[in-house]
Amino acid sequence: DAGVIQSPRHEVTEMGQEVTLRCKPISGHNSLFWYRQTMMRGLELLIYFNNNVPIDDSGMPEDRFSAKMPNASFSTLKIQPSEPRDSAVYFCASSSAGRDNEQFFGPGTRLTVL
Amino acid sequence: KNQVEQSPQSLIILEGKNCTLQCNYTVSPFSNLRWYKQDTGRGPVSLTIMTFSENTKSNGRYTATLDADTKQSSLHITASQLSDSASYICVVTNYGNNRLAFGKGNQVVVIP
Fold first, then answer.
1. What integer pLDDT is reported at residue B96 of this predicted model?
2. Fewer CB within 10 Å: N-end or C-end of chain A?
3. Residue B106 parent element (H or E)
4. A4–B32 C-beta distance less than 8 A
């Protein structure tokens, strides 16, 4: 059982560049979540998909952030243009049915924007 | 103000000793409360989940309690081991809008 797969594990980029983070949820899970974690703010939910449809994107900080889920086995989180304050660890998680069920987290992508 | 407050922010305990972590929340209406364990450099892993009617739940050496009246939860670690060194995050779900509120975590360091 591969678990949630995220890539890349580490990303260093310069301010203004586009960043794309990728996630493959656990096979059979129909809910997918993108989180951001920083020391200052802790863990924050950015967006939540159910059956590939965005259900709650209230946590997406601003228009520079966008997320897509073209099919049940793949999702992307894009930041364009990136800023130093976007530096954080971004986690993807999946569950078998919505927010109430146990969420399984991926290993995260550590993003550094210089 | 954060809807979920955890204390202490960090603590150091000797291997073999017990410790208790606190989580106070203001989320209302309440749906459920989860405790996650997050090892350094890894994603959180669920330890326990409790609904309104449950006031205690165990997972090995971890025991969570819930007092929905006072909106408090605790996570008790028994006979701590070095592998318990981690951040423990309390997450509360709002029954009305199904949104999650996260605490900032309790950082536990177990020393030999």
1. 82
2. N
3. strand B106-111
4. no
Chain centroid offset of residue A33 CA: 6
Q: Give the residue from A99, A110, A22, A44 showing the smallest Cα distance to B40.
A: A110
pLDDT for the residue A98: 72
Q: Which tens digit of pLDDT belongs to each residue from B63-106?
A: 999 999 999 999 999 999 999 999 999 999 988 877 889 999 99
Tokens of B103: 């605490």
Tell me the count of A-B CB pairs closer than 8 A: 44
Query: Is residue B77 classed as helix, strand or coil in its secondary structure?
Result: strand
pLDDT score of A86: 96
Q: Residue B89 and residue A100: Cβ atoms within 8 Å?
A: no
Rounded distance, CA A75 to CA A93, Å? 11
CA gap B43, A78 in Å, rounded: 20
